[in-house]
Structures are given as C-alpha cells and as structure tokens.
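Table S2 (continued). Query chain:
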Amino acid sequence: FCLPGEAGAMRAHARKEPGAWFIVKPDGGCQGRGIFLTQDVARAAAAAAKDPCVAQEYIARPFLIDGFKFDMRVYVLVTSCAPLRLFL
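Corresponding output:
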C-alpha cells in the first residue's frame, strides 16, 4: 500500500485479515532506517502523514536461500519500439 493515498485500502485489508502484521518502509529511506512492524493501521497512517511510505503485509516465514532473504530483479533495456528490440 502506498501511504497515505491507499490508507483506506489498507484499513479494509486489515479488517478482512485480523491479526495481520504490516511492515512499513519510508519512501526515501535506506539501510533499514525508519522501517517498523505494526498491526496498527493508524500508526502506519500517522507515519505516512510525516513522510510517504510503503506498507506490505509481513510474511512471517519467507522463502530463504541458504538462510537469507533475497529479491529478484530483472532489468530490461528497450532499444527500439518498431521493431521491438530489448535486452534482458
């Protein structure tokens, strides 16, 4: 959820999933600064009032590789639209 704009959608999700935890990350943060876990949507919305942030439902047992969390990114370079030419 992109807060504060999607705070209503986050509240609706929290009502459908009682007991859900959310991880809230500030929009301009880095190196884990400002990240927190909460079940309180009002706390997340209050944090977003100061600085826009992203909230995701927290996954307690994520898929790990050798005990570490990971992400996968795919970068695409589009060099032409007609004909379509791109590089992964």
